[in-house]
Amino acid sequence: MSDKKRQKWYHYVCHYVSHTSDLEEISRKIFSAHFGQLSIIFLWLSGMYFHGALGQEILNSNVDGGFRGIQITFEFFQIWRESGITSELQLYCTAIAALVFAALMLFSGWFQDVESMLNHDLTGLLGLGSLSWAGHQVHRSHFPSFAEGATPFFTLNWSKYEEFLTFRGGLDPVTGGLWLTDIAHHHLAIAILFLTAGHMYKTNWDIGHSLKDILEAHKGPFTGQGHKGLYEILTTSWHAQLSLNLAMSGFLTIFVAHHKHSMPPYPYLATDYGTQLSLFTNHMWIGGFLIVDRVLRHRDAIISHLNWVCIFLGFHSFGLYIHNDTMSALGRPQDMFLDTAIQLQPIFAQWIQNTHTLAPGATAPGATTSTSLTWGDGDLVAVGGKVALLPIPLGTEYFLVHHIHAFTIHVTVLILLKGVLFARSSRLIPDKANLSFCFPCDGPRRGGTCQVST
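Above: the chain's sequence. Below: its structure in token form.
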């Protein structure tokens, strides 16, 4: 098979639209593929729970002779504690349940209209899922579990629930993680929101709203017709849905990466430094891949903007350090950019910190502290002599360091994107993919990514 035929074949295999023009068939394939991926995820989870129950002590124990067990940097042990798993039998049961769900996902790949999908995802997946997890935490994760059930709810004796549905804020000083009672309260609250939102859209009956009507009725003072035509684009183009979903998924993944550090969700996670670092790196990589996926169509604009952003950040950031080095060499510390001399305070970041620190007093009177110690409120939390979290006051040094980090990150992205986005074609040499090893820096069939990527 020739190179052109092979490239064309690979393109068609991964491109549903080239197979058929039937949108419903394309949609069914994509939806089925999503459920197939869920099946694989459940299968992987089953294996992790099974191997955690079978022979895990061999890996973690001290094997003598100067050797220690394997230290894994994954959060499964913390997840098991947060889930209330206390025996190997429960791990085996969870592994079997994951296998059952993996099998169910293989038969769940159906396609529905947009409103039905929204109702299904909001109510079934998010609403009932959050409610089920809140109930699981109340009855299994908390010790002792709540034995009175729903009786206090129907008898309006809601004060009984204050024991395990709390709004304390901050971290549990024993585990170094968020209070499990706060997490249960959080899941119950968002379950109510999602269950309510799941009944908002119209399906087979005239009850509810049409998503098309909602979008077209949204007309701002500067947007003209507003969102007219957006419904048709998102419901007839899987490319539009893919780009939108990838952007949101990438943002949420990066969002989770930062919050797993500043608000540790699982017990004893904050003091497991290797696991914390691995989780942050993993989520940042995944979020970056998801966001970058659809940038090929905008590569010229991206490269041109990154060029001037890097130039600006370079002059700006290094200029501050050159100024400090010069003033230090001249013996004029009073003219340096320091908290004790010329201050460059990160006022916007400090404003965000102060907002989060003061928010509980206005929005959650029952909370004893803010959502995270990193906002600068309270004392550090230590578990077993290891620091779990401590306040991070921001000053001039953070302003300088973050600008340098911004510069290095943008330059790294510029270099990588120039190599990735222009690896197979170039305006200077359109057929460079066929030129083989003609330029320096060539990899296998790269076509010269260094000399002709400008």
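Strands lie at 381-383, 386-389.
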